[in-house]
């Protein structure tokens, strides 16, 4: 039976959350932990499309929120020695990955976000969350720029839409670097196995990474399996992956498509063309989830020389400027 379209506050694993329901779809977002959208489901089919935290034991989620749901990263991924050169100045980020001596994943994925509002109508169920960065904010402590970030999630007959808006409310040119560490559940259908699945991602070239997981400036040839990933699809667990690729839109779209060959159902993650890079991580080919991560900038981009800022996604916003990008997760049902 189809659910009533609604939006309401209720806990997820003992933590306050906002739940959205529209038709057969259901989603949950946790404002207090990075505005992480931790669940997206089809309740009629029993499908769970994201790697959800265990609601009976949230300790692992609280310790590592970046590997569940859809966490927002800014500035995303790694920065060598924590150095962040920008517009003639060099800022120092904390070294929070001792094994590599880098800064990792920025300051927005584990902080509390403001719940601006939620609601439901005949067209959608939605929630809006915001983050205001200024004096006193952890982000500002290391990168002293004043701006707001707004995330709007909505469920409709067309699946889950994510809208990201960044507004430079300060007086300086600021870096505008974002990514989403999206954790896709494999299998998403309860009676399927991970071996039933193939993934396609609009990757281009693979960037070589050094022992500190930083780009060397060189590209590596794609393996036959990576060529399949780019073309018609391959198991997302064909090898242990923590790989950095350029994005190469196909037919005007930048996307991941995951197919369950047992049911014939597909999940599409259409991320938009502002994300010029993909990170793909599968937790040592764990056969439980993988992360196709849309990322605006090259890893360590502020420290890369000799390449245009546009090519590596080292982009920014002038005072008063807005940036907006919309992404969507949606299923395509098997043809009968």
UniProtKB/TrEMBL annotation:
Pfam families: Aldose_epim. This is Galactose mutarotase. It comes from Paenibacillus silvae.
